[in-house]
Amino acid sequence: MTNPRVLIYFLGPAGAGKSTLTSSFSEWCEERDIATAIVNLDPGAEDLPYAPDVDVRDYVTTSDIMRKYGLGPNGAQVVAADLMINYIAEIRELIDELKVDYVLVDTPGQVELFAYRPWGPTIVNYLEPTYSHLIFIMDPFLAPSAANFVSQVLLALSIHFRIQYPITFVMNKMDLLREHEKERILNYINNWDLVYDEIREEARTPYMLFGLEVYRAISELGESIKIIPTSAMTQEGFHEIYFEIQSVAMGGEDVVTGKRNYDFEI
Ligand SMILES: Nc1nc2c(ncn2[C@@H]2O[C@H](COP(=O)(O)OP(=O)(O)OP(=O)(O)O)[C@@H](O)[C@H]2O)c(=O)[nH]1
Ligand SMILES: [Mg+2]
To answer: What's the gap in Å between 38 CA and the centre of ligand 2?
Structure first.
């Protein structure tokens, strides 16, 4: 059987590499004759490293909203996102017309749109209620310590808690790390016990107890959370991302919730 068409959302903190990874992953797929299209959902994007097939900026841009309502960039971005809802039916029609296997969706840097606001779940559920996949991009430069590493995982989980589609975690920008930084990050990724030990070492304050409780809350999941080291520059990890999406789209289970998300026969 052929695969369903999947919408793949690239999410993560500002500057983590959502747009670059969207672009680079699309090139990687095209080189392997896997048809992709790109949707830009970021009304604040200035220079994109790809030519979007569907672009929210054709309807609303953050810079127009800043001018029109005298808002700063963050407020304008939230208003722009809200206004986007007025055009979402048109955007969906355009997406539905795309004749590709994978639609890659670049998202705004305001991660709170997905973590806290109704916007994120509304958009994802509306655009493709069945075959959607989230890629949460972690930034190694935001993980200088075990506590910060865990807090990025928590952010991803809080998004996943609200938007219950399969999720793949990636640690991007691996090519930028020096050898000892790379080793530290890979140790966190591969060894949750080390994360536990470091949290204990890092914070010898009452907060340590809080940190350890948080750690415990996610450590069982941690066993099943796989984080793929990637680089948008070298395309490291792209096979693994593709494999993850494929294994879910072909009837696998979501590692975090254990739910079957694609309920069809293989
Ligand atoms: N060397 C290297 N640079 C990267 C990588 N991914 C992203 N970058 C760079 O990081 C910067 C931010 O990347 P973007 O793709 O714009 O990040 P973003 O998450 O889309 O940012 P916002 O949309 O502003 O939230 C750019 O200068 C990219 O070239 C990577 O894997 N390796
Ligand atoms: Mg971007």
So the answer is: 13
For residues 235-263, average pLDDT: 69
What's the CA gap between 49 and 24, in Å, rounded?
9
Report all structural domains of the chain as residue ranges with CATH numbers, in order of start.
6-249 (3.40.50.300)
Q: Which atom of ligand 1 lies closest to the CA of 109?
A: 25
CB 70 within 8 A of CB 59: no
**In whole angstroms, how far apart are CA 150 and each of 44, 204, 212, 241?**
28, 17, 10, 21
- pTM above 0.85? yes
- Is 80 exceeded by the pLDDT of residue 157? yes
Our answer on whether the CB atom of 42 is closer than 6 Å to any ligand 1 atom is yes
- The rounded Å distance from CA 146 to ligand 2 centre is 26
